[in-house]
Amino acid sequence: MSSVEEVSDALNGPLVFRPPGYKAPKRRHRFLRQIINDEAKRVQLKQQQAHDPTLITYQSLAAPPSLKPIKTYCDITGLPTNYKSPHNQLRYYDKECYDIVKHMAPGVDQQYLALRSANVVLK
Amino acid sequence: MSSKQAEEELPPRPAYPIPDFGPTGKLEPYYGSYETGVPIAIDLGRSTTRFGLVKESDPNNVFPTLISRFKDRRVNKMVTLVGNEMFLDTISKSNIRSAFDGPMINNWDVIEKVLDYGFLHSGVSSQGRVDNPVVMNEVLATPLQQRAGMMELLFEGFEIPKVAFGTDCLFSYYQNGGSTGLVIGTGHDATHVIPVVDQKPVLSIAKRIDWGGRQATNYLMDFIGLKYPYFPTRITPFQMEKIKQDYCYVSKDYGTEVSNYLSLDNLEKNDIVLEAPFTEIIKHQKTEEELQIEAERKRDQIKKLHEQARERRLEKLVQKEADFTYYTNLKDRMKSMNKREQIDILRTEGFDDEADMNKYIGNLEKSLKKARNEDIGENTSDEPPSFPLIDVPDEQLTEEQIKEKRKQRLMKANHDARIRAKQEKELAQKEAEAAAEKDRKRRETDLSGWIAERREKLEKLTQNVKERKRLKEELTDRKSRAAQNRMKNIASLADEDRGSGRRKKAGNVTIDNDPNDTFGANDDDWAVYRDIARGEDDDAEEEEQQEILKIEEELLEFDPDFTVEDTLQRQYDWRNSLIHRFLRGPRNFDPEDQHQQHQIHINVERIRIPEIMFQPSIAGVDQAGIVELSEDTLLRRLPGETGFSGDDSNEMMKDVFVTGGQSLFQNFQERLETDLRAVLPVGSLLKVRRAQDPLLDAWRGMAKWSVSEHSKNSYISRQEYAEYGAEYMKENNMGWVKL
Questions:
Q1: Going by fewer Cβ within 10 Å, which terminus of chain B is more open, N or C?
Q2: Do A121 and A100 belong together in one domain?
Q3: For the Vps72/YL1 C-terminal domain, which residue ranges apply (chain A) (predicted)?
Q4: Contact (Cβ atoms closer than 8 angstroms) between residue B656 and residue B687
């Protein structure tokens, strides 16, 4: 018997510490977005019933946007730059990078933009 | 020249291997001295779980929070492997699944297995339940659904007597003896900034940045994927994480360092070459003999082709010459005719009027001249062959001889054409020689003028090249002026063709038998396409390149101010190419080299990835970075909170505490301290420290806390859970948030 089987059997076999009658409930597979949305609804409902300004929630902990000027960097190389291509909004450092940006295969520009969540998302 | 020497002196860059697999498999140890009643601390991390009875100073089991479930065909049954043991088997690696979607648990079956596994390896032997209190971490202010799920699983699935929850970075702070300070916890999925005053976290002003180790690894993975889109092997997330841990570091001064990162000097120091494993294909080396035979064969073929092409050219030339003589004779004849006859002849020949014919003859002459200049065979003997039958009238000849005569006539025409071509060629050569001589004289008498002239010419040529490139680019855009002009040209050409009934012999009829359409009857017709082509004139381009090279050579020889650096070729040198340095580091790239094909270069990424914690906007996260958040918390939010003052802030600055995996990046503390010092008031007593063990201290803190005075009244028992449900909690100063 291989060691792989052994460790698997040990885990799958009857475990002494598990309560004999327990049967796992059927659980719905929920994605992150659903979980967050459900939580937001729950919090809203709770606040309507009895408003509590000190309530701390997952949403309320999220850090606010930065108030400082944002530094921009070349999307290709990561060097600091202020240039932006008018074709596809990609930032580029110099002429050489611009050549690449200009002749990008369709879709690749969106992949680059997705790296900083600036891509177009169709809903 | 000097750079060439330098290149030879530079040693090749060392290439580090990308680890072949992810983590190596190992058997998880079982804990030997289990006791009931002793708390079990579970740091259920998004990437790594630490599990163990709190009697020990370190967790008994540390393993990745992943399981792998698959059907083993060898024994025909389902196999489930957890944590490190997954890597014992090769099949299991492709069946790995995680319990999490981002920071949230979405697969409770996986969590159940992980807990099973943890309790099993902790040696739990109590019957029918786990008879130990549990201390566990949870996401700060986790959604109620998550906490409820976990409580349900622990109380009903394992029947534990009591449980307490908390946040890992606060446990870590507790372990490191903190009392008042700013806790910065960097995790696998999020980074928290939590102020703590007198051991109480001020959660109302705590903040979370949605950026952690997982996102950083993914970002690096995507970035490298775009940097090397055709990389031959796949780099797994495990490998990427290892690369990130091994080679990324926090820059002490990002702005300055990144600007200079792709300079050759810096790359020499900081460019990392990573090579993916691959099996080298050894190319079959051809022997000298084989090569020779191959070359011979090739030469023969080329010779044959040349011969054929020459034959064809010659035939055409003869035909053209015949045409030319015919039309010139016709023209001469027409001079002695009256108007009417002239027009008749013109009509039958297919011309519009006399001007049309003259134009046609002119064109014919031009193309004749050109054709003669081409190579039509030099290797004919000088002595003229004899054509005895040509001058004999047909009546005196037999049938056989007439045939022979026709043949001889053709041969004679051939021969004459050849001789004329030769003469013309010689003339051209003489002219060229004279021009060269004149040029030399001019150079000797007026060097500066000559140089200026050459430079101007070179300038013009390079301008041409650029112009062509620009045109080509512009034509890709349908709306550009160049493209519009081209369309206009095409339209007008189409119009023209329809307008004038073209000339030429009626015998030349096209495929669709339209006698008016004689396009292509004359070779020059095809030149139309040249005018409206998309600026892709390869021949002209080639010619220009040759011309540029020639002028550059001359200038290099005679112009003292013109150096190798000025040549066009030199300007395309890889050293001057930013993209080359970014992709291939400070060495030349040989696309044939199999090692280099399997190499990636990590340079800017090394500092870019950790920098995202300080500037989340780099990755498009619309949140403030850790320094700005800390500054805001210390200077504004905390003093503004009821019950706190600036004194608390001043106290807090003395203990800025960092923990979690991302704090392990080199220079992290130093950078945080420099940046904070820059924004805090002058004279602030700032101190930044890191947890002794940023990875394990959270578990140790749980263990320490679970048996301390603080914890006594902070557990929730099974009865309480049954009575009040999952919303019930007890304040424990460890981040157990009331939901």
A1: N
A2: yes
A3: 72-101
A4: yes
- Beta carbons of B109 and A24 less than 8 Å apart: yes
CB pairs under 8 A between A and B: 204
Mutation site for B-interface testing, chosen from A41, A66, A83 by largest number of B Cβ within 10 Å: A66
Q: Is there a contact between B143 and A36 if contact means CB atoms under 8 Å apart?
A: yes
Closest in A11, A19, A65 to B623, CB measured: A65
Whether residue A56 sits in one domain with residue A78: no
Task: State the total domains in chain A.
Answer: 2
Q: Look at phi and psi of residue B280 and say left if phi exceeds 0, alpha if psi is from -120 to 50, else beta.
A: beta
3-state secondary structure of B70: strand
Q: What is the mean pLDDT of residues B294-307?
A: 91
Whole-angstrom CA distances from B303 to B295, B298, B518 are: 12, 9, 35
Distance CA(B44)–CA(B714), nearest Å, equals 19
Cβ–Cβ gap B604/A10 under 8 Å: no
CA distance A27 to chain B (A): 7
Positive or negative torsion for Cα B726, B730, B736, B739: positive
Distance CA B41, CA B28 (A): 17
pLDDT digits (tens, 9 = 90+) for B350-406: 887 888 888 888 888 888 777 776 655 554 455 566 777 777 777 777 888 888 888
Cβ atoms of A97 and A78 within 8 Å: the answer is no
pLDDT computed for residue B150 by the predictor = 94
Which stretches in chain A have pLDDT values below 70?
Answer: 1-2
Strand partners, B193: B184, B207
Question: How much is the pTM?
Answer: 0.76
Helices (H), B33-83: none
Looking at the domain assignment, is residue A24 inside a domain? Answer: no
Question: Chain B residues with CB inside 8 Å of A111's CB?
Answer: 222, 226
* Residue in B with minimal Cα distance to A95: B578
- Residue B204 is classified by DSSP as G
Using the Cα atoms of residue B221, residue B225, residue B227 and residue B232 in order, give the sign of their dihedral.
Answer: positive
Cβ burial, residue B295 (10 Å; 0-12/13-18/19+): exposed
From B607's Cα to the closest Cα of chain A, the distance in A is 10
Domains of chain B: 14-176+691-739 (3.30.420.40), 213-280+604-687 (3.90.640.10), 300-430 (no CATH), 447-562 (no CATH)
Q: Do A63 and B159 touch (CB under 8 A)?
A: no
- pLDDT exceeds cutoff 90 at B227: yes
Determine whether the interchain pair A71/B92 forms a contact, defined as Cβ–Cβ distance below 8 Å: no
8 Å CB contact of B141 and A63: no
For residue A35, give its domain range: 30-62
Question: Among all residues of chain B, which has the CA nearest to that of A101?
Answer: B579
| Partner residues linked to B602 by β-bridges | B272
Q: If residue A83 lies in a helix (H) or strand (E), which one and from where to where? A: strand A83-84
Q: What's the Cα-to-Cα distance from B442 to each of B456, B459, B463, rounded to whole Å?
A: 16, 20, 25
DSSP B335-404: HTS-HHHHHHHHHHHT-SSHHHHHHHHHHHHHHHHHHHHS---S-S-SSPPP-TTTTS-GGGS-HHHHHH
User: What is the per-residue pLDDT for B384?
Assistant: 63
DSSP codes joined into one string, B503-543 = -S-TT---TT--TT--TTSSGGGGHHHHHHS-S--HHHHHH
Where are the alpha helices (H) located in chain A, listed in sequence order?
3-12, 32-49, 95-102, 108-114
CB B315 within 8 A of CB B309: no
CB distance B642 to B240 below 8 Å: no
Q: Are residues A115 and A81 in the same domain?
A: yes
Subunit contact B125:A16, Cβ cutoff 8 A: yes
Q: Count Cβ atoms within 10 A of the Cβ of residue B298 and give its class: 0-12 exposed, 13-18 middle, 19 or more buried.
A: exposed
* A106 lies in the same domain as A75: yes
Determine the distance in angstroms separating the CA of B209 from the nearest CA of chain A, rounded to an integer. Answer: 5
